[in-house]
Write the structure tokens for this entry.
Amino acid sequence: MTQELNQMGFAQMARLIRDGRATAEAVMQACIERIELREHEVVAFTCYDADAALAAARLADQSESKGPLHGVPFGVKDIIDTDQFPTGWGTTFYDGYQPTRNASCVEMFIRAGGILFGKTVTTEFAYFKPGKTANPHNLGHTPGGSSSGSAAAVADNMLPFGFGSQTAASLIRPASYCGVPGYKASHGSFDLQGVMSLSPSLDTLGFLAREVEDFELARSILCGSTPSELPDQDTPLRISLFRGPHWTDGSLEMRDVCQRAIDALKAAGAQTGELACPEMFKSLTEAQKIVMAYDVAHARIYEYSRYPDQLSTQFKDLVESGLAVSRTDFENACITRDRAARILESLFVDTDVILTPAAPGEAPAGLDATGDPLFSRGWNLLQVPCVSIPYGKGPNGLPLSVQLVGRTGADDDLLAAAKWVNQQLNPKS
Amino acid sequence: MTQELNQMGFAQMARLIRDGRATAEAVMQACIERIELREHEVVAFTCYDADAALAAARLADQSESKGPLHGVPFGVKDIIDTDQFPTGWGTTFYDGYQPTRNASCVEMFIRAGGILFGKTVTTEFAYFKPGKTANPHNLGHTPGGSSSGSAAAVADNMLPFGFGSQTAASLIRPASYCGVPGYKASHGSFDLQGVMSLSPSLDTLGFLAREVEDFELARSILCGSTPSELPDQDTPLRISLFRGPHWTDGSLEMRDVCQRAIDALKAAGAQTGELACPEMFKSLTEAQKIVMAYDVAHARIYEYSRYPDQLSTQFKDLVESGLAVSRTDFENACITRDRAARILESLFVDTDVILTPAAPGEAPAGLDATGDPLFSRGWNLLQVPCVSIPYGKGPNGLPLSVQLVGRTGADDDLLAAAKWVNQQLNPKS
């Protein structure tokens, strides 16, 4: 094998273990070796237990298959509860807090044979204040947030898969900055029991993985979905470039990479085009901020009341701005969302997939901020499924990605399209 | 005063305390005396701390007003976390489990000056297996479930207010059986941080209170809403009887009480009528069962996996039926819901409020079941706001109620209408 075990995708690892071509122990050992080599610099984890993970892998090698993830390790963003590791939510006052239960997503993975490896770094309450994680491609640059640790661990070949979540841009942005595929599901796709609530109108679970094909496996485990098939070759995929309201706020290289991706997909047989940005979409970023602030002020009122001196100024400001949002303002922002969602639905009559920037550009330098959520806020408000696919590099040699957007609820179709797009943009040598 | 302090509504108590006409201590003492007299038979609480509550009331009497609930006690269904009392969810294995945080609804009430008195009994996971609570009107009859303790405590004048929740019929049914006003909000109205998740598509927080007027105060504290005004007297409220798909499954006395309520409201000046049941509404109960089973299987997969021997057969069957629901079946049930919601929206063109049964009839005899959720499943699936208003008694002398249903999101209008309806049906002597 030319590829090391720890560099492989999650589904491929599971196939090798199932077919007896690799042991779960060897897979786990390869991941641990990588972590021991790199973790002191990347700091992807808040905690893990290599010995327990190795013991679980050895047990898996001696056991009947529990399911499609048998023997495969995964990481969990530290806003997601596990009964094995504490959950700190990126805060000081909950540091070391040990939940009694696994989040549903963790338990579903364990039931499918997956091995919980450890917890990955998040920002404070999955908002702006960064954790200690660095971008594995350049340790002086942010990995993005808030799913910082999951993105960095997967990008650095420490783990094949990490759970992430998104309220503004917390999954697609770190995926893009770290150069790994990311999938944020349609809002409401996956059960959130045991996942910290920040904004119930927006919070969505998702995945960071080494391979795009891994998303449909993980999705089927969490919600029982059946992967979609692409239409046959005579029915080309319809992919439309959507510059959106913030196109000129992004970097030249991001604009270039989107255009090059569309051209490459056209050359590969897709029916490509471009969609004008509906006027109304220009209100979405502001509406997302209103909905998020209102929701956060209610969801995290306890910590705001009880730990005022241990919160970042950014987070306190967010709660206070949310407490000042009237119910009417919140409802009006939801009406804006619903109107834009109907317009978006009409755009999907003529296209299957939207292609749009995943982030403003490369990961910015410095670890004191996680980058701008501008290119995801609106999509996240619209509750649509999104996939980011690495494509090209920026002037600093750091990864860029394009973002694919599908119809709300049609995640399986989007994932099938994303596999095809990825095959065209990143053909396996 | 002809009314004892512990018999008063929550808003009235707050007014008396604010105006110096009663002390918070006297209010609390009156509630405690009632509890000490009756709790051994009614068993409304899983735990409470009378000394701590009295101390908090005395402190309130010596303090500046914290807000509109200053000095007023409230109870919390035991699927809702508090940092003062453990949360058992009606199970044996979580009995005594102490959360680190208050649920958002609890914290918002405390910030408004309310005094957390104790936790009220729920059924196992807020599903079917009853707790120990009896109906205060007849200890041999069920109080209904799953908000059993909150309904019984309020009905028995132990507390003026209790938090409840509803996934199938868990708030409107116990309110009806215990003869107290109940309000189940539009789905998504109130933050659910710290509230046990059973079915995210259906779970909704709500209130049980001595007075209908208390709902708008509690609602404004939780979500910042502004109470609605009724139209002037020249614009009569339009109220329509809706027999719905299960009319003949209910008791004769329930049908009679709905008809008598409509007649009384017509006599009081409402513009009354009757709405035929759309054919499609006959699918709603079954669709609710599918959505609920699917959701529960995901939300409570941890307990199903880890405590199989400590779950009731009913609950295990529910999870297993949910694990057998395909994603497609779940999505089809959601499509049924969405279609019916559009039909319901069209019905509200010609009516302001729907009046329909709250439960099949009086509280059934026996404490080994909590009654049939048939008259709420469909409404709960539709995510509409519902208010139950006590009206009349059945052949066993136990309370009956009518249920008012409003447009999704128009809770403030429904609460204004409910106040008027209650004034007509239950005029203050």
Chain B has one domain: 1-270+354-429. The two ends of chain B are 13 Å apart (CA to CA). Chain B has a mean pLDDT of 97. Chain B touches chain A through 39 residues (CB under 8 Å).
